[in-house]
TrEMBL record:
InterPro entries assigned: ABATE, ABATE_dom_sf, Znf_CGNR
SUPFAM superfamilies associated with the record: Jann2411-like
Native source organism of the sequence: Streptomyces violaceusniger
Alphabetized PANTHER family for the sequence: BLL6575 PROTEIN (PTHR35525:SF3)
Organism superkingdom: Bacteria
Domain Zinc finger CGNR: 136-178
Protein name: Zinc finger CGNR domain-containing protein
Length: 187
């Protein structure tokens, strides 16, 4: 897997939770260093600049990520929230968040790593207490554990994205149908 951050889920908190890829199999960690965490904050667009993170910031970010994922999957399964996960999200959301400023050239958000992390936690609070909860779905690819907001017409989206998950499963289904069609002819 590559270290490119992707933003497919429809909410920064969900994209943040997806930074541990392939949770059920190879478990590919995206936050391998403070630099990768800072890159996520910048690439996600929640801040324009962020002060350099430290290893302790990565540990806090991973704890928040896991808490968000636990709460999102509990909500999707109709289960009650775990108290520890709630405490992590709420405690992080209580910290000062990144505050946008108006400049002569437009909007700008400069933040510390803690402020950026608080902003992610606040996105999680808003998501899990807002109108998009019924739209949360987990990717249909068994190797992918991304949860996304399904805003498709009819709510029938099955994958986090066509590339790579949808394409991979459609190609596998096509190959299986082709194999099955060839088996009766071989008999």
């Amino acid at each position: 897997m590559n270290l490119e951050h992707v933003f497919l889920c429809g909410n920064p908190a969900l994209d943040f939770a997806a930074t541990l890829r392939a949770r059920r199999s190879v478990r590919f960690e995206m936050f391998v260093s403070p630099d990768r965490l800072d890159a996520w904050y910048l690439e996600s667009g929640i801040v324009d600049t962020v002060s350099a993170s430290q290893h302790a910031d990565v540990e806090r970010a991973v704890a928040l990520r896991e808490a968000i994922y636990e709460l999102v999957t509990a909500r999707g399964a109709g289960e009650p929230y775990g108290s520890e996960a709630l405490a992590v999200v709420n405690d992080t959301a209580r910290e000062p968040a990144a505050a946008p400023q108006l400049t002569a050239s437009g909007r700008r958000t400069d933040a510390t790593s803690q402020e950026a992390l608080s902003t992610v936690a606040r996105h999680a609070v808003e998501l899990l207490s807002g109108p998009d909860v019924p739209l949360l779905k987990e990717c249909g690819n068994p190797e992918c554990t991304r949860v996304y907001i399904d805003r498709s017409r009819g709510g029938r989206r099955q994958w986090c994205a066509m590339d790579p998950c949808g394409n991979k499963l459609k190609a596998a289904a096509y190959r299986a149908r082709k194999r099955q069609a060839q088996e009766p002819a071989a008999r």
